[in-house]
Every structure is written in structure tokens, then in C-alpha cells.
Amino acid sequence: MPLALLALAIGAFGIGTTEFVIMGLLPEVAGDFDVSIPTAGFLVTGYALGVVLGAPLMTALGTRISRKRMLMLLMGLFIAGNLLSAVAPAFGVMVAGRVVASLAHGAFFGIGSVVAAELVAPEKKAGAIATMFSGLTVANVVGVPLGTFVGQAIGWRFTFVIVAALGVVGLVGVAKLVPDLPKPEGVSLRHEISAFRNVQVLLAMAMTVLGFGGVFAAITYITPMMTEVAGYSESSVTWLLVLFGLGMVAGNLIGGRFADRALMPMLYVSLGALALVLAVFTLTAHNKIASAVTIVLIGALGFATVPPLQKRVLDQASGAPTLASAVNIGAFNLGNALAAWFGGIVISAGFGYTAPNWVGAVLAASALVLAFLSAALERRSPAPTKVVTGATPMPEPAVAAHR
Length: 403
What we know:
mainly alpha; Growth Hormone, Chain: A; 17 helices; 77% helix; MFS_trans_sf; MFS; MFS_dom; membrane
């Protein structure tokens, strides 16, 4: 494994920790700022929307500099946002800090996915992408539970100081280990935008929004669901998040392995099973053991979709993958934002803390329908399907294989 993949995974670890740790700290943050749990959910929604906006914006701004330098600048922005969250005197400032940190998220994973794919042979692209994303999944086994524990025991502000320190480690890792790969010749912002003429790119991104949204409809409100419905103590949420993280690690590795062999069948199985498990979660949430098992399955099935969806976007946007890759990361977080919002709506409407699970099941099932549609269109038209005609053919990028 190239050491550069390790550096990308380190950066992903820090970003993954700050993205998910807030879910275990919603009650503490809500109580400190004297807001409701659904209102505190805007810390999840705001972060996700920041990723959606930041992914194309930061990627576009970085087209004139090397990918390595852009990755370093993004980590600096991430550090600043987490420090602002740590010292926020009011809820609005806290939301602002989350948004600042989130601006780095989409572009880091988007550019990082392209770099990871260029570091290995073509038949190992999904595995390389999965290796980078392993930092995000491991964050949910180590970083998020530890951050939740520290936040509950010492204070949530100290958690964000620790996250900022993780960002510093990630910045140093990128600076020391990621090679300064030459930029592809003839690739401009206009050229990158041309990838969005491909219907398959748009369908893959829609699957990303709906499928990943299904996961976060349930997981965003995991703390009140487990304490108020399943009967767990607040301190037990830390270990439930560990279980979710272990599921994420397993799912990410499985998704990366099979996406290089049978990408679409991997999506069919993972999305279909995810929709079923989320629907069942409305029942298993009332039992401690059953809910814990379900949380593992949600993590595994949700993240089994990540490598195949990211690889599909890279494949379909061949020749201009950087912006499309970053926007797809934004699509993951658009799903997070919509799911957190819909979940808050059904809770506020009085349907209870398990109601977001039904929202998630519907979203995941919708993603499965789009996967079948995408495959059907591909069978009917083997050549890339364009939204409009007359697009300039995009040259294939050179892929440097490092073993």
C-alpha cells in the first residue's frame, strides 16, 4: 500500500471524527445552548449542507494549484472551523464553525479519491478509494466514541479541540507523504463540468443522496432513540457508536473488494438490504440486543455502498473526474442533511424517535430503484448517455500504477 494512501486515511480520520461525533453529543450541546434536540440537529444539517456547497466551490478554486497543495489548504480550513466550534459563545456561532469545517470535507474526499485512484493499477481503484475511506470508518470506532466519552465526561468543547489537533496530524501527513502529482494537461474547470452531461454520473449521485440519506435518517437521532426507546443509559451511546463504526469498517472493506469485481450487483444487495434493515429498526429499537445488532448492520450496509458509488462516478466521469468526485462527496452529505431534516420533522410532528427509521427505509428503497434504472439504461446504450449532445469527447487520464 502506498504510504500516500495512509496519509489520506489520516486526514479522513480527522474529518470523519468531526462529522459524526456531534451525533453522540447532541443532548450536551442542546442543553448548553438551551435549544431542543431537533434544533440541535441543525449542527448535522448545517455541516452536511456546507459539504454540499464546499465540494464544488473549493474544488473549482483549487483547479489552478496542485492537488497536494489543495489538500493541505483544505486541512487548514478544517482546523480553523473546529477551533471556532470549540470556542463558540452562541448556537449560531457553533453552526458557523461546523459550516467552516465542512467546506473542506467534500473537496478533500473528492480530490483524495482521484489521487488514491491514480496511485494504483486500474483494477485496484475501488480498493484504493476504500483504503482512504477506511480513515473515516475507523474514526467511528475510535475517534467518535472517544470524542463522545470526552464530551460527556469533560465537556463537548474539549472534544472539538481534540478534533482540531487531529486535523494538524492530517495536515502533516499530507505534507510529508502525498506525492506532488502533476496536474493532467488540458483539464480546465469547463472540462470538469462537462462530466455532468453524463446521465449515469447524475444517477450515481442521486443514488448517493438517497442511499446515504437512509443511513443518517436513523443515525442522526441515535442518542435519543437509544436512551428513550431502547432504554440504554446515556453513557452506553459511546459503545453503540463503536458498534456502528465497526459495521462501517466491515462494510467499507467489503464494498471496496466487490466493487472492483461486480459493482452493480454490490449496489443492489447493499441498498436492498439497507432498506429492509431500516424498516425493521422501528421494531428492534425497542430491544437492547436487537437494536445493537441492527446498528451494526446499518453501518455495514450503508458504507458498503461508498466505494462502488464513488468508483462509478469516477468511471462514468472518465477524463474529468475531480469535480464530479468532489460533488459526489457533497451528494453523500446532501443525503445526510435531508435525512436529518426529515427525521427532525417526523419527531417534531409527534411520531416518536423511531419514525426517522421509516424515512430512511423509503430513501434507501428509492436509491435501489435508481440503481436498477441506471443498469437498464446502460444495457440499452453501452456508450455513455449524455443529457445533451455535442459534448467534446473527454480524454482518458493517465493512471500511474504504483505497487
